[in-house]
Design goal:
Layout lengths: L19 H9 L5 H15 L3 E8 L9 H14 L5 E4 L1 H4 L2 H12 L3 E4 L14 H15 L5 E5 L10 H13 L3 E2 L8 H10 L5 H30 L4 E7 L2 H16 L3 E2 L2 H4 L18 H8 L13 H10 L2
Parallel strand pairs: 1-2, 1-6, 1-7, 2-3, 3-4, 4-5
């Protein structure tokens, strides 16, 4: 065993610090390029610790239109803290552009979660009506609003995961990101948690039995989507990568995030911060499929010609029939 290596390799990747293994090996093999070493060691760790997952949360809650915004935010943060999970928050500028909204962003940061850019206006870059210039101007508006936040990261989470409907727009935006020091904040596991949240709120007030039934439906949805994208990754990549799951800041996750974490851990998943997951070489792999976007695993599968992929990859229409029957 190398000096400083833990006996449990999964434990070695559960913090934001560089891998102890990587640091030790770098001392032994100083002439090996750090980039190559990082890829090789990540592959070793992943082989030994199959199924690694991190959580990211998009949008934010608007205290001006959602009276429970701050309470739901605190409940979500409390649940993550109790579960000892660090996530990443991608607020849309227009949602949090108020004194209380910015307090919400600060609360995420103070709780130890990184904060990234989700644009200001939350417009789809996959729309022909949204030009590169208009989109980048919108990104910088969010940057100016949020970049003084502690734990701010120049990572871009595209609204709706849409990265451009043409090669020209996709490539122009990627060039802009590189010039401005932005890295992509891709997801490997997409979900329809936003739709489940809408359906959960639509039947208020709920009995205790109804809440429990919906909780089980929601956990099943997340586990099913994680299993699907992990199997798709194994088919395309030949391995299970460190996954980044897309969720949203909403009432549903505020109530059930503790159950979500417990469920995944009970299924054998190791939870790590997104900062660790993004070290996986997957997130440096360029995609060429058009329209650009969706889960990076889905995009690479489409690029490889995998049959039977639905578009969009996730949507409420795929969940409606199940909930119409099961959530009675």
């Amino acid at each position: 065993m190398l000096a400083g290596q833990t006996t449990d390799c999964c434990e070695a990747i559960t913090t934001d610090t560089p891998y102890t293994l990587a640091a030790s090996a770098t001392n032994v093999l100083p002439r090996i390029r750090r980039g190559l070493l990082s890829v090789a060691l990540f592959g070793f760790v992943q082989t030994a610790c199959a199924q690694v997952l991190s959580f990211s949360f998009d949008d934010g809650l608007d205290p001006r239109s959602q009276p429970m915004a701050m309470a739901w935010t605190q409940s979500l943060l409390d649940g993550l803290r109790a579960a000892k999970v660090r996530a990443m928050f991608f607020p849309a500028g227009r949602i949090v552009d108020s004194p209380q909204g910015l307090q919400q962003v600060d609360a995420w940061s103070r709780a130890g979660h990184d904060v990234g850019n989700h644009s200001y206006s939350h417009r789809s870059f996959g729309s022909p009506r949204v030009s590169v210039d208009a989109f980048t101007e919108d990104l910088m508006r969010a940057d100016e609003l949020l970049s003084s936040t502690p734990r701010w990261q120049r990572r871009l989470r595209f609204p709706y995961l849409k990265e451009g409907e043409t090669a020209e727009k996709r490539d122009a935006l990627r060039a802009w990101m590189k010039a401005h020091g932005y890295r992509p904040a891709a997801v490997s596991i997409d979900t329809s948690d936003w739709y489940y949240d809408e359906r959960y709120a639509a039947r208020e007030p709920r009995s205790a039995a109804s809440v429990e039934r919906f909780r089980r439906l929601y956990l099943h949805h997340l586990e099913r989507r994680a299993r699907y994208y992990d199997e798709l990754a194994r088919q395309v990549l030949g391995r299970s990568p460190a996954h980044v799951m897309l969720l949203h800041t909403n009432r549903l996750n505020a109530e059930f995030i503790g159950d979500v974490v417990r469920m995944f851990r009970s299924k054998g998943w190791t939870i790590v911060p997104p900062a660790v997951a993004y070290r996986d070489p997957l997130y440096r792999t360029p995609t060429r499929s058009l329209p650009a976007g969706e889960s990076i695993v889905w995009a690479l599968a489409r690029q490889a010609g995998v049959a039977g992929l639905r578009y969009p990859a996730e949507d409420g229409v795929y969940e409606q029939g199940l909930l119409d029957v099961a959530d009675e």
